[in-house]
Amino acid sequence: MAIIEFDNVSFRQPSGVMALKDVSLSIEKGEVVAIVGGNGAGKTTLLKHLNGLLKPSSGSVKIFGRDTRDQSVAELSKKIGLVFQNSDHQLFSETAEAEVLFGLRNFGFSEEEAAKRANEVFSYFGLDGLRQRAPLTLSGGEKKRLCIAAVMAWNPEVLVLDEPTVGQDFPSKNRIFATVKQLVAARKTVIVVSHDLEFIWPLNARTVVMNRGQVVADGDPQRIFADGRLLEDAGLRQPQLVALSKLFGRDASFKDVNDASEWLANR
Amino acid sequence: MAHVLAEGLKFRHQDTPIHSLDPRIKLLMSVMLFSVALVSDGPYQLAVTFAAIAVPTTLARSLRRMGRVVVVSLTFAAFILVVNILVGYPLLKSLSITLRFIAIVAATSLFFVTTSPDELEYVMRWFRLPRDFVFAFVTAVRFVPVLMLDLTQIIDAQKSRGLELDKGGPIKRLRNLVPVLIPLIVNALIRSGELAEAMESRGYGAVKKPTSLHELRLWGRDYAALMITVGAWSGILFAFRYYIGVV
Amino acid sequence: MVDEILSFEDFTFKYAGLNAPTLRNVTFSLKKGEIAVLAGASGSGKTTLLRSINGLIPHMYPGEYSGKVVVDGRLVADTPTYEMASKIGFLFQNPENQIFMFTVERDIAFGLENLGVDRKEIARRVDWALKLLDIEDLRQRSPSELSDGQKQRVAIAGALAMGPELLVLDEPTSLLDPRTAHDVVNLVKRLNVELGLTVLLVEHRLELVAPVADKLIILADGRIWKQGDPQEVLNAEGIHEVGLSAPTVVELQRQLRSRGRWSQRIKLSVDEFYLEASKAWP
Hints:
The complex is a heterotrimer of chains A (267), B (247) and C (282). With 267 residues, chain A is an alpha/beta fold. Chain A is 38% helix and 23% strand. Chain A has eleven helices and ten strands. Chain A has helices at 43-50, 73-79, 96-106, 111-124, 140-152, 170-185, 197-200, 221-226, 228-233, 240-247, 257-265, and strands spanning 2-12, 18-28, 32-36, 58-63, 66-67, 80-83, 158-162, 189-194, 206-211, 214-219. A six-stranded mixed sheet of chain A has the order 6-7-8-3-9-10, with helices on both faces. In chain B, helix 3 runs parallel beside helix 5 (91-114) and helix 7 (131-159) packs antiparallel against helix 9 (178-201). Chain B is an all-alpha fold and 247 residues long. The radius of gyration of chain B is 22 Å and the shape is flat. Chain C contains eleven helices and ten strands. The longest helix of chain C is centred in the middle third of the chain and has 18 residues, at 178-195. Chain C has a six-stranded mixed sheet with strand order 6-7-8-3-9-10, with helices on both faces. In chain C, strands 2-1-4-5 form a four-stranded antiparallel sheet, with helices on one face. The model of chain C has no long low-confidence stretch (mean pLDDT 92). The chains are: A alpha/beta (267), B mainly alpha (247), C alpha/beta (282). Chains in contact: A-B, A-C, B-C.
């Protein structure tokens, strides 16, 4: 059942630039989708159409069967949780706990229900130690995970992450990756927007490539990541494992380093 | 509304006889029009004043921008009109005062519409304003679009968490600004910290009198504009005094 | 040593107001013309180390300072930051916050104006910097209209116009997309080759910079964990524990080594590895 449907969506910015051109896309419940492309490809513009921050200039966006033009941002955000790239653009409370309660209160949960969900989400994401800390004093990785937790607190069906790894160091990227896997295992619909293909590759998710406001590829990551020309044209760097696989003439690309060293060791 | 005002006052580069004048001359023109607007009284004088403002504005192809600024100032103008009437001034006098206000706004904005922030900086330096002050002003103006962008992104992020800025009574609406203002201010503070480091790293303060890539120079057209401006100025004031009385 | 442009000698620093030193006993040096990469997880002390190079520490950030930091023969602690400005070009992470003026041209001139350089010389250097960075067409543009990659170039041009011998870049690619990040790294390499510029680059995405680095310094918990030849450093055990990951191709070679199937030197890029591998296993 498709819960997100883009039907020939085009979007013109006030400056006249066409940020999206005839984008058609359909996402089912429980799918994990990676949307990749360079800066300026239109990824963030696409994301903003998911919760109604932007409405299409032409074409339509339907969420759970209803046109986004008929719904407010708040209504749509309840079903589609967006975590933006810059955590510093949303953290403002005195404690991490208050930060999580903010969204819950906005969406009309009662105080008891909100407290209960806040508890659940702090322990689910392993953030109990941060509850009383001031969000602005947290590290980059902690802030990002707090933002994700704050959104999952109201349990939207879909979680959308906009460039979750930008500015994050290696241990932090690992934790974010683990968080994404956790949500995938919980059968959430997860959309990750990124230009960091090394992060995306191990997800082995359906991949949508965007370039200059259009969707230029959509489907099996093995096939898409192997297309060096496509990636380069979109301003992306092929993951090293994929590049290696191609050089060694393999049809399927190595899934991880172990896979690769196993195969090469037996040559 | 603030959006329209910001748009109206924003400099936009155009190739017109007015835009290409030395900024000091443009400043003088605005000052002249401002002072004329300040002393005009009565329909005839006000008509002359608005005509005088319209001439350089048309030459600068900025009538529409000017129109927008005037429209925005109408709210405040209406307020002035009402207060004057309440205080007891006759209707015609109150109207005169109100129109005078609009003329002053138009005269001032002429300068900002035709002068780039860059030129503004040169003028401030020419006036020998303290270097730190000029730099702070310039940087502030340079970062206005950046902060505006931050603001849009913050609003988007908070709306995505269910914040509804257009709902609720006045108190609720004010409270709803907190999740928007705090990140904005914090981000601005962080930016200024980084700017300070960058300034130091680029030698700010090395020398008491920094030099400059460009310098202001008066060309033939500037002298011509100067003479026309001074001539018009004295002409209009003379006419006000002796010929065009107040009705 | 005549050849050294930067040296840290047993440098320890604690910010005023913090309980423990952020950097401890840091000792390393850079030779003229080297490209060195400084890497470390968040909180390892990278930013503090960089600030100590051009004098922001101790002049802007006071604290307990011991040991020596010397740039081109001068003690940083005894030299005001603005004097360092013409020796060290400093690039910060966010290009937006280091562009002050309304036009690209004026921003590049900014540093030179601060130093009191005469007008003709400023104009000459601005022209040179615009050409070097291939941004002549951006001369009159307003910075807020530029793309991130373009802003980064403008910032670099502004730093280079001041004629430094050492260029320090603090995670210049972290906010950029892969293509632009790659362009910046190549640009830095080109500047190093063309101008003989010594470069200290902070970056934790080692796969981006390992191929161009002459030297790799890894910081962990305020101390230097390892430094030296990139091949050796990346091959060391425990790199994950200090919060970094070696490029995938390096990880691969390490695994092959532990299986006894790779005895060659560690290659730092996919292409180099493949070349070597196809020779080894035809």
